[in-house]
Amino acid sequence: MTSEQQHFHQFRDFLEKSCGIVLGDNKQYLVASRLNRLMEQQGINHLGELVQRIQSQPRGGLKESVIDAMTTNETLWFRDGYPFEVLKNRLIPDFIKSNPGQRLRIWSAACSSGQEPYSLSMAIDEFERSDPGQLRSGASIVATDLSGGILTAARNAEYDSLSIGRGLAQDRLVRYFDQSSPGKWRVKAPIRSRVEFRALNLLESYAILGKFDIVFCRNVLIYFSAERKKDILRRIHATLKPGGYLMLGASEALNGLPELYQMVQCNPGIVYQAK
Question: pTM for this structure?
Fold first, then answer.
């Protein structure tokens, strides 16, 4: 094994222990592309030195900066489309029938820069416009992410034209955003007010979050080992109220855990209902 490979393995172990993300042997280019600038700024020559620096300064900001760089992904508005239609046409009506007069609580796990929770808030607004008075006690969304830096940007709710162009229809841009400056738009206050952002590592306890009617945990479990994925799914189940729903990403499936979840076909798409 070359010294470069040894340094990569050191970094890979550090990342998995810190946030559960598993890197394959073919991910050295990805790591380099995300960390080269940071390492140059810090005067760090290789990944092994980076890990040593983090371990010697555990309370410094370097660890958070590295995790931010490795976990922050580009995301889309209304990603994949159908989950938000399922929310409006199936999950919210089911919730209203089963929980008349109660407030709907949704968790957006690994929310990144905020597009998913704000898309959920817009979808709730669209439901309320089409069925006024049905969701009498309203709804709230808890959005969590590991990255403190990305949560600050998500709370600010301001997006440039490149971000806006990723999946946002023109009618939604007009209805739900204010132009804050040339080339920048900010989510309107009523949509923002439904969303509360919190820092959370999915490897840690979820008890502080309380109970939810619906959990969106999309396009994040693919980064974990099979064992960690099962552990996360068990602990998500513990946050769901009986009969609550879990929505995974389009490329993700819940293999196993039949004692906890049952698959529900929605045409299109699949959701998992907590037993």
Answer: 0.89
